Amino acid sequence: xxxxxxxxxxxxxxxxxxxxxxxxxxxxxxxxxxxxxxxxxxxxxxxxxxxxxxxxxxxxxxxxxxxxxxxxxxxxxxxxxxxxxxxxxxxxxxxxxxxxxxxxxxxxxxxxxxxxxxxxxxxxxxxxxxxxxxxxxxxxxxxxxxxxxxxxxxxxxxxxxxxxxxxxxxxxxxxxxxxxxxxxxxxxxxxxxxxxxxxxxxxxxxxxxxxxxxxxxxxxxxxxxxxxxxxxxxxxxxxxxxxxxxxxxxxx
Amino acid sequence: xxxxxxxxxxxxxxxxxxxxxxxxxxxxxxxxxxxxxxxxxxxxxxxxxxxxxxxxxxxxxxxxxxxxxxxxxxxxxxxxxxxxxxxxxxxxxxxxxxxxxxxxxxxxxxxxxxxxxxxxxxxxxxxxxxxxxxxxxxxxxxxxxxxxxxxxxxxxxxxxxxxxxxxxxxxxxxxxxxxxxxxxxxxxxxxxxxxxxxxxxxxxxxxxxxxxxxxxxxxxxxxxxxxxxxxxxxxxxxxxxxxxxxxxxxxxxxxxxxxxxxxxxxxxxxxxxxxxxxxxxxxxxxxxxxxxxxxxxxxxxxxxxxxxxxxxxxxxxxxxxxxxxxxxxxxxxxxxxxxxxxxxxxxxxxxxxxxxxxxxxxxxxxxxxxxxxxxxxxxxxxxxxxxxxxxxxxxxxxxxxxxxxxxxxxxxxxxxxxxxxxxxxxxxxxxxxxxxxxxxxxxxxxxxxxxxxxxxxxxxxxxxxxxxxxxxxxxxxxxxxxxxxxxxxxxxxxxxxxxxxxxxxxxxxxxxxxxxxxxxxxxxxxxxxxxxxxxxxxxxxxxxxxxxxxxxxxxxxxxxxxxxxxxxxxxxxxxxxxxxxxxxxxxxxxxxxxxxxxxxxxxxxxxxxxxxxxxxxxxxxxxxxxxxxxxxxxxxxxxxxxxxx
Lengths: 252, 645
Ligand SMILES: Nc1ncnc2c1ncn2[C@@H]1O[C@H](COP(=O)(O)OP(=O)(O)OP(=O)(O)O)[C@@H](O)[C@H]1O
Ligand SMILES: [Mg+2]
Fold this sequence. Notes:
The structure holds two protein chains of two kinds. By secondary structure, chain A is of the alpha/beta class. In chain A, 38% of the residues lie in helices and 25% in strands. The N and C termini of chain A lie far apart (39 Å). Chain B has helices spanning 2-13, 15-39, 42-45, 51-82, 84-92, 97-138, 150-176, 182-188, 198-216, 222-254, 259-310, 329-338, 371-381, 458-465, 488-498, 508-546, 549-561, 566-603, 609-641, and strands spanning 315-320, 343-357, 363-370, 401-405, 420-425, 428-438, 452-456, 473-481, 503-507. Chains A and B meet through α2 and α3 of A and α1, α5 and α6 of B. The complex binds adenosine-5'-triphosphate and magnesium ion. The site of magnesium ion (MG) has 2 residues of chain A, from α1. The site of adenosine-5'-triphosphate (ATP) has 13 residues of chain A, from β2 and α1.
């Protein structure tokens, strides 16, 4: 089954004044099956963030079709999209985006709260999750009182709390040191394997990408190549480097 | 619902941002309540205050409401903009726009409710003080009893309730219109380099020039011209900030500047471009404060002299010859005596009323008096030295010649009649030669006598007087007092004694007290409204600074990494803030100067109010400096010490 299916996704910025319009995505086709861990790579400015925002329904595509599970997103009202987001999608950003006014614990339970859920079960789930992510000791603290790695793990917990079918992560390791980055990636991998959560990870770090099962390379808003993991992570890592070499080589 | 408790927690914890907003709203509510409670105070309602003064207060209430509406909308929308990232995040996490709209609607309503309640409590606490000061300002003989008029409470609650309800509705519409991309937009809005265009500069300077020209050039259509002048100067001021100053800074930047000045200049360009609208509003508010306080205080300085010019006779009683009842001067002297008021000089003069044909062919009434009458009146007036420069000595007047006196405010410099004027005396029409027209008043203003004075030769007067019907002849008793300012109660008694008879009574002190009372009320309400304007002016600048705090934090960190010391960053900030706070004051001062020249046409002020304007401006600057100092210290602390949040 497909968790996500996009066909011919196109995004043009600044359509209002044609002089300065900019095509960020140009007909992207993409499928994410359930329990798949997919990476998206590409040079800076290639449209990765734009793609992720469209997939999450945060921004309107100029043209193209998008299904999340069985819902056709192009036919959704903003309200239906919001409901879909809080039931089926979890989002992790490069710069964490936690609410400063809430404790880590409250930040994590926020998506459920928005959905009107409350009570013991919610608290229990949040505590389990925070325990699992090693944040139990700091969960009553505020975001600015804890480290970047802890904040990012909180953001992951927030993305997971409602058991989404799909996690979208935009450079989640971008602001982390290598140790924290590695443990975050291992965490994502474990989630993918143990819970069967589909993950779409945007990164331009080949090491991070090597945790994925499949990589989609994009360049100038179009899909450039697809790379499937055959055996070990190490050999996949080398293949990624090779493909990036080709990608950047042809670019110049 | 669970999310409501989150929303509540979130609102409460972001309260720090809202403290200033709440304080400002409460202040507006407080002032409105105090004005209303004063106007509707039963004791005030039934006396104490002239009708005009009450009107002034009522219009002040109106200004407070309009103004409160303006800043509530402005501040709140600014605060919401500061939170747009948070709203974007919530939308990303799946909050439904309607949910968010409802949350912000209730949050705004609660803020409004708190403001109304705290404002009214403050109003109640301070209204006793307000009444005391008001009584002192109006020099009332009694203490105004403290009262809580239910109508005021109701009025305040209803007005501000409606205001906050509208505001809450608009605020909720605003956030409902946001899309999740608001989360990223802020990062995206990396500012473009401020540019200027020569065209806009030309247009801006033209607007300013035209506005100033209209103000300075003499025109009698003061009210009609006011709106275009305001629009032109506001537009000009806006272009001054968004174009002219940008040009100057661009030119400065091209020259090799040393480290800190380069940073100041380049940062200032962004600040100006960004805040041109707010700076314009601040400038206009400041100009209004300086102008109104300056001119009211200035008027207060000269109100004594002005009253004398309008009513030079300290006490005047005019009786028509057709009227059989006469007022005895002995009686009047007696009344003055019992009040301890001494007569410095007195006169009994006779005049008659005729009509004069004006330039446009209409006939207007004039009082005709002989030169010798004028001269003896003048001698009487000169017992008050302040009148010396206003009552001219007249040359000899030959037969068929006359001196015409047309007092302000009807016409200042234009001629009322042709040089050879027709004078209708009873049925006869004489042609006379007008030697000169001057802006003088000799006989007190009275609605029973015409405003204009025609001084003719003694021979002509004696000749014409013979054919005049009795009803056109008047006998005028006038007295100059040694201390007319203290003659109020005596004048009251004289008026009471005369009331039943057919006599025109007038006194310098009556007009003086009325004007003084009016000015006191204006001054007093002006003070409160000025405070409101001042707080808004300073507050908006600080508030705009606040919205850039995040970026400055990053920038200052970069500066520090580049080796700039905290002290140097502090100096950079000082220069920048000093300019942001005081450039509008400077521009406003220029505006006010022009405005006072304009006002001078309306009320014919003489010099002297420039000193007052300087004092008002100095006080304003000192207060603004305190604002600046506090902002500077707080801003630097917040930008440098905290790493997050
Ligand atoms: N809101 C916007 N308005 C106009 N242009 C935009 C906007 N957002 C992105 N772009 C443009 O679209 C293109 C793709 O941007 P995008 O942020 O998706 O790149 P990216 O692949 O995420 O880059 P990076 O790796 O640096 O994050 C860029 O050229 C960018 O300038
Ligand atoms: Mg990106």
